[in-house]
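Long-time lurker. I teach an intro course on protein structure, and each term I like to show students one example going from raw sequence to a predicted 3D structure in token notation. This year I'd like something fresh instead of my usual example. Would anyone be willing to generate the tokens for the chain below so I can use it in lecture? Attribution to the forum is fine with me.
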Amino acid sequence: MNHRFIPALAAAVFFPASAYAHDLWIEKKGAEYVLQYGHRGGELMPIEAAKLKAVTCVDAKGAKSDFLPGASFQPKAVTFKGTCACLSAFYHGGFFSLTPDGEQNLPKNKVNDAVKSWESREFVKFVDAAAAGAQKPVGEQIEIVPVTNLTKLKEGDKATFKVLVDGAPVAGAAVARDHNPVGETGSAGEIRLKVKAAGLQVIDATVKKRIDSPEADNLVVTATIVFEVPR
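-- Reply from a regular --
Happy to contribute to a lecture. Here you go:
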């Protein structure tokens, strides 16, 4: 079935803010990668092991490895050991329904009088800017790909990013940096952003589409890219 993607900024008008209220990100800390959920620098949320569906390490030659079996789960973090040009994770947030009594983390066929319903999928990747092949797509359902060479970035520079859905550029994706909206992708699926400060960069993009499902009316998908700009 041909589902039409529409801008996520429009989606936000129809869905509660909580659907977009938390971030998923990966940081490199020593020899480990750390996956966290919530607000970076603020409150962290638990990560449910059953919702973490895939973790893929891509090395400098483009070879992929499954890192999920080696994941170490803590209450509010998941750690992985290894060396990757890019580490990508898929977290299935599940189904949400808005009812007259409030929002529930359940599909619409499991609640009474659902006003709106959606499925949430989040894809996050940490990119080692200096690694060969780090700027190539991983092949996730939705992902952000750098167009600009990340190794040359410094504070004050501008960089271009492309949002891909099923491998194709998508216009109208809502883009945010550190959870603050910065605009939408243009007709080529690209957006240009200024590096405001050196250090960890966290950029995400969200789109939604109508689906024909007894569990939800819409699918909301979010991609996040994380990388370091040297201080």
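Some talking points for your students: The first helix runs from residue 8 to 14. The chain has one helix and 18 strands.
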